[in-house]
Structure formats: structure tokens, C-alpha cells
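QA checklist item 7 of 12: single-chain prediction sanity check.
[x] sequence parsed
[x] length recorded as 252
[x] structure emitted
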Amino acid sequence: MRTITSRRPFTILGIVLALLVIAAFVLVAINASTGSTGPTQNVVVATQDLAPRIPIPAGSLEIMSLPAAGLPSTVFTKIDDAKGMIPLVTIVKGQAVSSNLVAKPGQSFGVQSEFLPIPSGYVALTIPTSEQQGVAGYVQPGDYISVIATVTTGAKVATKTVFTNIHVIRVGQDTAGAAGTAATATSLTIVVTQCQAEYITWFLSYASLKYTLESYQDYGTPAQAKDPNCQSVTDAKGVTLQLVQKAFPSLF
């Protein structure tokens, strides 16, 4: 009994030391956790994966508080500043959106520029223009034009409006002019069906074309539904003189 009693203080001391060690570990863990928090910053992050070349919709962005220490200085802090931008690389869900990862619409970055606004079932076609042919350069992206064709067959010369409500999405310009002069429009990129593209190509080769600029008060909305007569590029079967004569008999 005397031996057991004499050992009891050492046992109690061991328990006390063990508790002190555990407390020390807990304090270290708390301090480490507190020290790693640091200041945070509200930034714009992606709520889903954002693919390159597709404009960012506002619904794919949100404001989130992230540790400021790991953020680049180019992050966006307002959704309005980031929406509509064009990702140059894939931005993953939860990633902060920064200006070095995106470009403004219309900026040219080769294959990384945004997709052209072409509805499903339609194609983009570039046609030549000039001051006299294309309304003195007043045609701008978003405008609608009509196309007039003049055909000469033997002694007969005929002119007819062959297409209307053609949506222009880009205007190519010659920037190599003299200093201080306005750039000259040299091409128009339009949205048409593949079948219309074949007819326009025929007219460009065998007729003379001129464009008129439609009143902005008559503008419709860009085509969304597919043309039932030409729903895809595979519906275009080619154009011959006989088909053009049948489609536009008053020209011949």
C-alpha cells in the first residue's frame, strides 16, 4: 500500500503534463488558423465553366469574397465590367475573372477572337463594297441592306432587287489610306443561308451588284429560326444560269 501511495503523485503529474501538451497543440492550431485568414476582397468569379470565344453572360458571374493575397491586380470587382467580355482561355467555375484572361468584343486575337453572331442554319459571307457600291461607307455593323443586281444578256439590260433585309455583322476597312483621311470600307460580312450565298456568289461573278441601306425604322431582329427552304448548308445544291433565270425571270 505504501508503494502504491508513493507513486500516485507521479501519475497525477504525468496526467497534468499530458493535458498541458494537448493544450499547447490546440493553441498552436488556433494561431495558425487565425494567421492564415488574412484580408479578403470581393471579386467577380465564374459560376460555371466559361469557354473561349463566347461572350460572357451576366448570369454566369457572381461576386465572391476571396483571400486578397492570392488575387492578381487585374481582377474585376463589378459584374457589369466583366459581362460581355470574350474569354481567351477556359475560365473554370469558381475562378476569379481578370482582364488578362478576356478581351473586349471586336478585338482581334486571331483564332481567339469571339465567334461571329451567326444563328444556327445560317452562314457568314463577305461581299466586296466601295463608296459608290455601298452607300458611301455609311453601312455599319448591325445595319440591314438590300442587294440590287444588274444583268446584261445580249442587248437586254435589266435591274432588280434580288435580296432584302440582309443583316451586316462586320465591315472591313482599308486602313492604308493617306494620313488624316477616313478609312474606306472594302467589304461587308453578311448573314445569309447557304442557298442565298450561292446565288449571291453567282451574281458577283456574272452581274453587277449595288447595295442600298434600309431605314433603321424598318430594321427587324436578326434571323433566329431556320429558313424552311434551306435549313442547313447541306440543303444548298448549287446554282446554274437556268436556276437563276427561274428564280429571277424579270432579269432575263
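[x] summary fact logged: The longest helix spans residues 2-37.
[ ] second reviewer sign-off
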